[in-house]
Amino acid sequence: MGTGFTFFATALGAAVVFFFRGEINPGIQRVFLGFAAGVMIAASVWSLLIPAIEMQEEMGGIGWIPAAGGFALGAAFLLLLDRLLPHLHPGSDKPEGISSSLKRTTMLVFAVTLHNIPEGMAVGLSFALAARSGGSITLAAAMALALGIGLQNFPEGAAISLPLKKEGLSNTRSFIYGALSGVVEPIAGVIAVLMVGSVTPIMPWLLSFAAGAMIYVVVEELIPEANLGEHSHSGTIGVLAGFLVMMILDVALG
């Protein structure tokens, strides 16, 4: 249900294509990208790294080891996917990843799908940890994380469906492809939980892994895109707003 909510938010954002004829104003787009970056930074710290450290220490271990190790592995994993998976970012004409004959529309969807993998893992792991009695993450904190990710997924859905429409796809196909980019979130969340199973010592590593992957996305894609243009204050304000919203949600509800 938690990862399903984030997927629903992406689909809801993709539905904007039925009501919006033009393109998103670049300034507003930068705010959305910055907001997503701020949410992911705060979520990585309060919802993933801190619980990972606390959980490891509760088991009698050294907290920073899985936090640092998992973080590095998560970033390396996204770096590998970024290098291998053919994808194209909205507004760009130069594909990334290995050479491919895939259509531009397919690579546009892959770009957003790549970002959604760590988000799905983070939400799935948070709910899994909340389900454990005496866990480092409460159900309210897991719900706060899902809400924060969902809030930034709404504009993300629109950010993929509208460019697809610009590429010549119909409203319906643009919506479907935009919504499908979010399907990876519940899939990644369920796979992460199944990987953990009853092996509690792995949980701190996976939480930190998701954090590293999310921060990679923020630094590699979201913040640079949020600061495009001569006047990037809107992107900066978006980052600050997203960070504040996610921090307040986690601390107040967690």
Please indicate the percent range of residues in DSSP E strands (runs of 2 or more). Answer: under 5%
Q: Give the SSE string.
A: HHHHHHHHH
Structural category: mainly alpha
Unreliable runs: none
Structural description of this entry:
The protein has 254 residues and is mainly alpha-helical. The protein has one domain (2-253). 75% of the residues lie in helices and 0% in strands. The protein has nine helices and no strands. The chain has helices spanning 2-14, 26-58, 64-84, 104-131, 139-166, 171-180, 184-196, 203-226, 233-253. The chain is globular, with a radius of gyration of 18 Å. The mean pLDDT is 83.
Fold blueprint:
Elements: H1 2-14, H2 26-58, H3 64-84, H4 104-131, H5 139-166, H6 171-180, H7 184-196, H8 203-226, H9 233-253
Helix pairs in contact: 1-5, 1-6, 1-7, 2-3, 2-5, 2-8, 2-9, 3-8, 4-5, 4-7, 4-8, 5-6, 5-9
Question: Which features characterize this protein?
Answer:
mainly alpha; single chain; 254 residues; globular
In short:
With 254 residues, this protein is mainly alpha-helical.
